[in-house]
């Protein structure tokens, strides 16, 4: 029973340990360079590690120990083989192996001890090496149409893994098709280093379209390719084409270059160019240039062979042009309220795109100056575009008007120690503001859109009339405002407060007097009524008189009560 329990416990411990071994994480090192193999990739904090130990798999499950490091101690080298002088450890417990070679392609394991736990992190290492270069040897001198000919051998030396080579024609990959393309590949491994040399041989059956084609080879997935090869293919001309430069757009003033391209090999060197009815023959060249073309150059152009004029090519050429005229332009000065009529003329080879800006800010539409205001002043630019041609025209508009006072008002400061006078003016050029009283200038607003605001503070000791006068070279204006003294305003405020207090006391006194009178009359009425009830022996006439007196007394009481309520 105890043996069974012990065995069960051992099995559980083994399962726990196995669960702490991570799966293989392959890394790729470069041949001949420093190989860095990470340990635990930061899964365990450095301060929690007691022991770090590196080992590798020699084969058949036999471990080879490399080095060990205990906490707060230096690294101890355990290796006795060639790794003894090649291994070290960095501060992150990563294993460093100098001058990586193919024999380093194996599994390395980092063992980490933390307290009572042991963790293992195996890493599978692969060593890669780029071939030094790609070379083409055994090149063909020329290609014959329809015949399978060896172009050359592409060789990639000393690589791991062996390089895969692809042939290209004009940057497009070639694949063996059993007919016009044949590719044979051989791989040889160097016994001393284990590195491989790949040789790819291309056989190709040329076509007429291959004239001028560029052939090269490239190592797949690697930044290596050979130099390009050109091969001579001879055949007669069957097609001719007229090329034009510039290709996208020909603008008035550009140089127009015509090029006659024939597909024969060797290519013809003598051509006829038909320039809108004019014939020009060129020798030892296939181009003709017309300098500084005008809009009249628009039309049909042709080129042909001198020895076979029936073989020709035709192109229609359009010269793009654009002329604009803006009137008026330059510096324009107008009075506020006047109108400004703009004349815009466009002469172009196609549809024009038009835009406007004012002071470099884009406008949504063409400005309309039926009634000019000061805010219309500024620099206006008209931009017209046709194709890649852009023309601009501009004018500087200044709207002027005589200086005018728009408003003049006053305010008392919050502390009651002075008054602020504000004069708002309009006009252009900028109005000069003056006051008929000396005061402290509080500020002047920026002159924007013909408007300006000027403020001063004053401490008037007597009632006075203040004038604000604005002036520019086109006129002047003035407006007056009455300003009372601060002393008078303070006295009036106190007098108003005193009168309000006296009136209040008077009203209270009247109300109290009426209330007292009402109480006295009411008391007298009550006493009289009581005596009247006791004197029933009086005559009827007296009773009648008493009733009349009671009625008058009641009316009197009612009247006093109403006054008291008021």
From TrEMBL:
Residues 539-566 have a biased composition (Basic and acidic residues). GO terms for molecular function: cell adhesion molecule binding; identical protein binding. Pfam families: C2-set_2, I-set, Ig_3, V-set. One of its GO terms (biological process) is forebrain cell migration. PROSITE patterns: IG_LIKE. It is a single-pass type I membrane protein. GO terms for cellular component: axon; cell-cell junction; plasma membrane. The keyword Signal applies. It comes from the Eukaryota. The chain crosses the membrane at residues 506-528. Keywords: Disulfide bond, Glycoprotein, Immunoglobulin domain, Membrane, Signal, Transmembrane, Transmembrane helix. It is found in: Membrane. Residues 32-112, 131-234, 238-320, 402-484 form the Ig-like domain. Residues 1-23 form the signal peptide. SUPFAM superfamilies: Immunoglobulin (SSF48726). InterPro entries: CD80_C2-set, Cell_adhesion_signaling, Ig-like_dom, Ig-like_dom_sf, Ig-like_fold, Ig_I-set, Ig_sub, Ig_sub2. Residues 531-566 are annotated as: Disordered. This is Activated leukocyte cell adhesion molecule b. It comes from Haplochromis burtoni (Burton's mouthbrooder). The lineage of its organism: Eukaryota, Metazoa, Chordata, Craniata, Vertebrata.
